[in-house]
TrEMBL record:
Family as reported in the entry's similarity comment: Belongs to the glycosyltransferase 92 family.
Enzyme class: transferase
Membrane topology (UniProt): Single-pass membrane protein
Organism, scientific name: Papaver nudicaule (Iceland poppy)
Pfam families for the chain: Glyco_transf_92
Enzyme Commission identifier(s): 2.4.1.-
Keyword annotations from UniProtKB, A to Z: Glycosyltransferase, Membrane, Transferase, Transmembrane, Transmembrane helix
Protein name: Glycosyltransferase family 92 protein
Amino acid sequence: MHTDSIYCVFQSNSTSPAKFTGVLPSSRSKFFKCSIPNNLRDLKSIHPPILSTSPEDYYLSSDESLKEKVFSWNSSMCYDSFSTEEDVILFVKGANKNHLAINRSPTELKCLFSNGVNTVITSVTSSSQEVFRCLHPSETEIHGLGDEKIRVALQLNDSVIPSVAYYRPLARNLIHPEKKQLCASTMVHNVSKFLREWVIFHSRLGIDKFVFYDNGSEDGLQDVVNKLTGDYNIDIEVIFWPWPKTQEAGFSHSAIRSRESCTWMMYTDVDEFVFSPKWVNSLEPSSGMLKSLLPINISTLPSQKIGQVMIFCYEFGPSDQKVHPVEGVTQGYTCRSRKLNRHKSIVLLDAIDTSLFNVIHHFELKDGYQSKKVISRDAVVNHYKYQAWSEFQAKFKRRVSAYVADWTDPVNPMSKDRTPDLGFEPVEPKDWGERFCEVQDMGLKMLAQKWFGLVSSEGHIMVWQDA
């Protein structure tokens, strides 16, 4: 079956092409997006569509396997699962009230494993945000479910939450590659123009592997990744993660999935660059620079174990830029606010609490581990948060965190996640170019020029600029 021959059939037989977007990590199922037909967009209620191989009438479709409703993301849904040696982790939207930080007791919940005919029920051991940990079915129970695909769902009291997640027992006798000491994971959506600078910079400073959670990018992400891996031999893995506003769940998935391949994981966004004033006299970057921020010995007494390194941020403003600077954000944005803001983290994956709870790029740790705050003279994160208006405006289209309201949603006007004095509409303030500018900070710009600047026939360029 070709992915370009699938259609979304809505009410009244209105149709639109089903756009193939990727393959889900747990089930290996193909993922499609359905655009709402123009003649239905003014309706108050639009029913979930049907996938069909026929654009005229899905009842005439020759592929019976496609004749099932497409779930709406606006309702509750089990959307992914991951198996560990100890348990099954289920990712579920709508069971807990994330915006109120209210988690249901595991005793209210059950995990259901079904082949469509028979069902096995196991207990839920942990309930936090959109992450639920369940016991594995026994080998006898799995054998009873046969070789068919086993769907896994969450039962809340007497109701079962709809599921597109499937159970994949953990493969035995896997040969794991040698662990990378320091990896970096982040969620990306249409950030390809920023990726080369961020990856090249941090790879030269000591990131051994990058793990990108692709949140539905449509700007040639894989082409950029292929070029980085081919030209620079950088280790990059892309995980298809299409679910809207699930950054925290994606980080939880990253933390548990990468536990066997990475020791430490850095969680920053692609507009955030780690910088230490202690590096300015170095003639070139080295792979030990970021690792120097980690505790040298993690095998000390439990009360002294460092499980998380927290680095605070300076927020940079538009710096009078009108468009994205072709030399990169480190070169174009040099004016920032004076005050240090929220921190971003480098986390010891084995130290993360079994709940996998995380907020704003930091995790809850197991008992016996603590977080270490890095002082600004040792390192900061340059957060190029408020860029040229054309770039910043694009952020109005989506926010990835489950805890952060969309820009146009008129709630929590005083939240730190809001842009001060901007309101709820993407209307450029007259003084946007001068905002958030209290300190001229050229430190990282000059250091990056020294480390990554090239002299070409066209003048001075940065190594990450496309040829």
